[in-house]
Amino acid sequence: MEDGVLKEGFLVKRGHIVHNWKVRWFILRQNTLLYYKLDGGQKVTPPRGQILLDGCAITCPCLEYENRPLLIKLKTRTSTEYFLEACSREERDAWAFEITGAIHAGQPGKVQQLHILRNSFKLPPHISLHRIVDKMHDGSTGIRPSPNMEQGSTYKKTFIGSSLVDWLISNSFAASRLEAVTLASVLMEENFLRPVGARSMEAIRSGDLAEQFVDDSTALYTFAESHKKKISAKEEISVSTVELSGRVVKQGYLAKQGHKRKNWKVRRFVLRKDPAFLHYYDPSKEENRPAGVKGNVQGNLFKVITKDDTHYYIQASSKAERAEWIEAIKKLT
Q1: pTM for the whole structure
Q2: Which end of the chain is more exposed for a tag (fewer CB within 10 A), N or C?
Q3: Domains: count for the chain
Q4: For residue 14, what is the enclosing H or E element?
Q5: Domain range holding 312?
Q6: How many CB atoms lie within 10 A of CB 72?
Q7: In whole angstroms, what is the distance from residue 113 CA to residue 97 CA?
């Protein structure tokens, strides 16, 4: 990494004039966030633009786009808004942490507070969010949405924050109310849950890195509709649910060479185990389904990376990242 660079990597950025989404290479320095256009999966100099961090406000998680739950919003001193999407919750939080640190570089107390927040409760690796949500939907033992009132308004099919915290503890998904609140925040950040009404929305708008979920009988939540959408028969054939049922062990942005035109495009790759598959997605599209499958990892691995690690069709953004991907894939073959 170059001198003075705090973090660098791929993020998906919303366009200012035409609100389309494009992958850009971002470099974070102490007072600026630079972004570059890509050619062949590599950054093109000079930078396409820069975001001045002095006086900037950061919102993470940003829930303004229902189908993009991994967003960071930056609002500059001049009120220009930037929407940036990461490839995973961990990567989004890492970017938010580093950017917030750069914004508050002159305030050691604030930076120390961020370190404490970052090192607080982590979701145990054996807990599957999909399993929790499936159990929440269970007709007999799950969470039953019902009409609830807040400030004189009635909201259908909602549940209160403290009820979900009680449920997570009683089903042994969390050992304490603090853990349950953190887990509920994660479910919301990953777009499984949605805040409803003024009380829960107010916590989201605060923009702090502290917990976003409210353990309270006045805060209302509901299931996010985007996870109930039916997929077409054509999509069902092209994407096997068995393929997508494995646990995610690694994900990130990588440049992939096209099969026919041999051009390079950045894709979000997801490596799953039990069963082992490597899928890739077009990050500029909103639908969260594979744009392609590199097949069962066991059978097609070396169509991606050669055995001697010299000739490959997928390009990582650094030698260290390439080594991490190779190591992760080798463990599944």
Answers
A1: 0.59
A2: N
A3: 3
A4: strand 7-14
A5: 233-330
A6: 21
A7: 11
